[in-house]
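Weekly sync, protein design subgroup
Attendees: M.S., D.O., the rotation student, P.L. (late)

Item 1: inverse folding check
M.S. brought a backbone from last month's batch and wanted to see whether the design step gives back something sensible before we order anything. D.O. pointed out we never logged the input encoding, so this time it goes straight into the notes. Structure tokens as presented (347 positions):
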């Protein structure tokens, strides 16, 4: 159990004991109901249906091998910790999802693990934990690094800040990305939202990745300009990675919420999809890597910085060679994960 989880668990234990004592006092007392408690229970905002639909899509697109833990008792939390430790011992290739049901929001706010990403849906009281492995971190880390280096080459290191996996609150849920960047100094009207979001997962979780992209555009109300998706195949016999840029269609601008309470009021599109692949087998620096189509993955300057470029400022480009480098690092990390699993199976 890592320190962050241990602190969360102990806090939850105290919370559970306190709640039980308060419930007993309430049962044996004729005192009037606490108005603050009543407000928290009944004064819920009227959440537009389209936001709830996006949250439910993020839940319904979880892969079939998602682990599910029911109940918010201390026993359930202990069970979750055992699951997390077991998954870490077995080794995680790209990502593994765990869903916890009936988690109170005050506990969800405290959940934090190393090598994990969190999403919490208030409507269903569901907590999604994405446990991530070395290949996942290699992909997200390389994209982060290339964005930082290109900003530095333009003298803009202080103008686009990496905000990492900072948890952001939407209309009816909260979510952590795999990477993010936000212009600095803060631009009036943008609030907390980054311009660039990075989401990484296994190819087998592709529908979940696209649902995540929808979540960012919807909850930021268009403040997020581009989502970079990286889908990594977990099949040992298939070495394949897909890089995508997802954007909000300019032909379908955001409309006022009041006009669209019961339908999606935006539309996203995949602007680019570039696939890297190579022959299966152990990683070898000499093994050729195919990039299709052979072109740069592009994030426009205005998407990143939320302003037009001033020459010689330019778009952020991930060249075919950069995509090859990122892919090679991911596959080398996968080889290590496969080797560890093989060694464990023999012991």
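Designed sequence read out in the meeting:
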């Amino acid at each position: 159990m890592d320190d962050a989880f241990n602190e969360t668990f102990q806090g939850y234990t105290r919370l559970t004991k306190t709640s039980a004592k308060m419930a007993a006092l309430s049962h044996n007392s004729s005192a009037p109901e606490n108005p603050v408690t009543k407000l928290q229970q009944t004064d819920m905002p009227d959440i537009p249906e389209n936001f709830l639909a996006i949250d439910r899509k993020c839940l319904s697109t979880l892969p079939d091998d998602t682990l599910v833990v029911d109940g918010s008792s201390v026993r359930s939390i202990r069970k979750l910790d055992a699951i997390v430790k077991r998954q870490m011992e077995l080794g995680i290739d790209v990502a593994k999802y765990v869903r916890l049901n009936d988690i109170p929001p005050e506990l969800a706010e405290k959940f934090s693990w190393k090598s994990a990403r969190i999403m919490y849906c208030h409507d269903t009281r569901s907590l999604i934990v994405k446990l991530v492995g070395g290949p996942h971190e290699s992909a997200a880390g390389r994209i982060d690094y290339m964005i930082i280096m290109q900003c530095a080459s333009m003298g803009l290191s202080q103008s686009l800040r990496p905000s990492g996996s900072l948890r952001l609150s939407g209309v009816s849920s909260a979510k952590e990305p795999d990477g993010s960047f936000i212009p600095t100094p803060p631009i009036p009207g943008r609030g907390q939202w980054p311009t660039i979001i990075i989401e990484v997962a296994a190819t087998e979780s592709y529908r979940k990745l696209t649902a995540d992209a929808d979540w960012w555009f919807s909850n930021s109300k268009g403040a997020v300009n581009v989502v970079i998706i990286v889908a990594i195949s977990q099949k040992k016999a298939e070495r394949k990675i897909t890089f995508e840029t997802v954007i909000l269609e300019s032909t379908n601008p955001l409309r006022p919420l009041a006009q669209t309470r019961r339908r999606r009021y935006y539309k996203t599109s995949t602007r680019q999809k570039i696939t890297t692949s190579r022959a299966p087998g152990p990683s070898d620096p000499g093994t050729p890597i195919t990039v299709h189509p052979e072109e740069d993955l592009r994030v426009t300057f205005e998407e990143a910085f939320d302003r037009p470029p001033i020459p010689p400022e330019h778009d952020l480009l991930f060249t075919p060679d950069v995509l090859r480098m990122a892919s090679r690092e991911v596959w080398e990390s996968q080889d290590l994960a496969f080797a560890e699993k093989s060694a464990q199976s023999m012991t």
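Discussion: Confidence is low (pLDDT under 50) at residues 1-44, 256-264. The chain has two domains: 3-132, 134-345.
Action: P.L. to compare against the previous round before Friday.
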